[in-house]
Specification:
Layout lengths: L6 E7 L5 H12 L3 E3 H12 L4 H24 L4 E4 L4 H15 L2 E8 L2 H14 L12 H8 L12 E6 L8 H13 L1
Parallel strand pairs: 1-3, 1-4, 2-3, 4-5
Helix pairs in contact: 2-3, 5-6
Length: about 190
């Protein structure tokens, strides 16, 4: 999807909020490339191996750097892109601001969130299911995550642009078509 100004669609929120599922769906519907920290990190785990939480965190940082590399490559040729991660505002604000300025890009943030208990239950269930790559070490961070989820600070990046907040407490009640319609309206501006 080529526009006068490329758009960075940022799907963010706290862990286990449903970001990746929504981002993948939007990517298919909008025919836009998607870069995901977890997707990149899992490729790195498969190539370089995994061992402990510190290693997973280092590969996580490298994965975010790669996300921004891929975003620059798309934006440089005028293409829009979807980026999926739990972006931490103090670190991510300047990085996104730099992208927007350098490529005259617009941004749409989709911020997914649910209450602490719902997020923790999902995360624990995902960790115990065995369906998630073992390199993440989710089982090892359950207590830490529960404490972290008590911080209800806003996940909205302070970078200007449009923001769509999505309550993901009950996935069955999520209206994907409504979100898609909102994004398409913003893309048409």
């Amino acid at each position: 999807m080529d526009l006068i100004h490329p758009v960075i669609i940022i799907v963010t929120g706290r862990p286990a909020a449903g970001k990746s599922t929504l981002a993948k769906w939007l990517s298919r519907e909008l025919k836009l490339p998607l870069v995901s920290k977890d997707g990149i990190r899992e490729e790195l785990f498969d190539r370089l191996g995994w061992k402990d939480r510190q290693w997973a965190q280092e590969l996580g940082k490298a994965s975010v750097d790669m996300m921004f590399y891929f975003a620059r490559a798309e934006l440089e040729v005028g293409h829009s892109i979807i980026m999926d991660n739990s972006f931490y505002p103090p670190v991510s604000n300047p990085r996104f601001q730099a992208l927007k300025e350098q490529y005259q890009a617009e941004s749409i943030q989709i911020v997914c969130d649910a209450d602490r208990e719902t997020l923790f239950k999902r995360f624990r269930s995902r960790a115990e299911s065995g369906n998630r790559h073992p390199g993440h070490g989710d089982q090892d961070v359950l207590e830490e995550l529960y404490v972290h989820l008590a911080d209800n600070s806003s996940q909205v990046l302070e970078i200007g642009g449009s923001v769509i907040e999505v309550d993901t407490t009950d996935f069955a009640k999520m209206d994907y078509q409504k979100i898609l319609k909102q994004v398409k309206l913003l893309l048409a501006k």
